[in-house]
């Protein structure tokens, strides 16, 4: 710090003794204690890259207020730590108190890691890994540090309480400084600062302005739209994604919410990831996507053809109806037209027809494929199956 010390809350944090529940990969809920959340100011940082035989100091963030959240030692794996980090990340973005940009340093993590033999209650000596700036690095750094400490202990060594840095290029942690006691920080009251007093009335007033938070949104999506806990959790992961999904459902109808969910989490998310875009920069708007899904619902096109239409919408910026019309992609729902194609396919494949009727029922798929090929994939799948079963007869 330019002034030689860092200001931080110490005796009276803004928050104390809280908790946060996170959902793990296996669907289990894990509750993690929040020791405290306190205000402090960000510090400058040393720079070494590209500076031969010298160090630089970046003071761009020095003095910027930040909120430090300290958790209880309740996490038992790197995956649990990442799940906890992602939940905090989602919350601060929902509340619009942080842009969540880890690369720029506006959201980052210090991970305290310790190991202990199975069956032992007392926690091992911890090492703190500073300034991890991506979820992937959090997981990799913890895995490395766990392995380092186990190898050290099994080799007869002792884990030191220290601060370490993670080198993402080498995928390793290295010692930065030792830190034994809180006294090492040399805390003292700042005589120029007044106390921060947060009254209950202020808390109550702020609570009234809070947006619907992710857990509440996920519960509502599951209740109102019949989504699975997983789908509801994915779609409520950000305010923007949740708003996009709800806009699609509003146009499509709640009875087709599952179809909307599948497309938002599937084709849309895939296209966004491929092009490195946020949901707010989607090349297909909620109204445009709902218009496409309506054409699946009214059987103008099949789900398979809809994927082709979506790609054209993404790349050309045209509406679903324009693309369907221009490419002649309307689904064939005329039973007599489908029957004519079935008759042609059966006549062209007498051996397969005889084999099917002699009991080789797996050939049903062959006939479906041949009819679809002949119609350019435009035959209505449900109608095709029913008509084909009637035409082929029992195997």
Keywords:
14 helices; elongated; alpha+beta; three-stranded antiparallel sheet; four-stranded mixed sheet; single chain; 395 residues; 15% strand
What is the topology?
Layout: E1 15-23, E2 29-41, E3 45-47, E4 56-58, E5 65-71, H1 78-94, E6 109-113, E7 127-132, H2 135-154, E8 162-167, E9 172-178, H3 200-209, H4 214-225, H5 229-235, H6 239-252, H7 257-275, H8 286-297, H9 303-316, H10 320-327, H11 335-348, H12 350-357, H13 364-374, H14 381-392
Can you walk me through this structure?
45% of the residues lie in helices and 15% in strands. By secondary structure, the chain is α+β, with helices and mostly antiparallel strands. It has a four-stranded mixed sheet with strand order 6-7-8-9, with helices on one face. A three-stranded antiparallel sheet has the order 1-2-5. Helix 2 links the parallel strand 7 and strand 8. The longest helix has 20 residues, at 135-154. It is elongated, with a radius of gyration of 30 Å. The mean pLDDT is 89.
Shape: elongated
How much is the average pLDDT? 89
For the report, how would you describe the main beta sheet? Answer: 4 strands, mixed
Q: Please state roughly what percent of the residues sit in beta strands, choosing from under 5%, 5-15%, 15-25%, 25-35%, 35-45% or over 45%.
A: 5-15%
- Give the terminus-to-terminus CA distance: 82 Å
Instruction: Please list the strands of the largest sheet in the order they lie side by side.
Output: 6-7-8-9
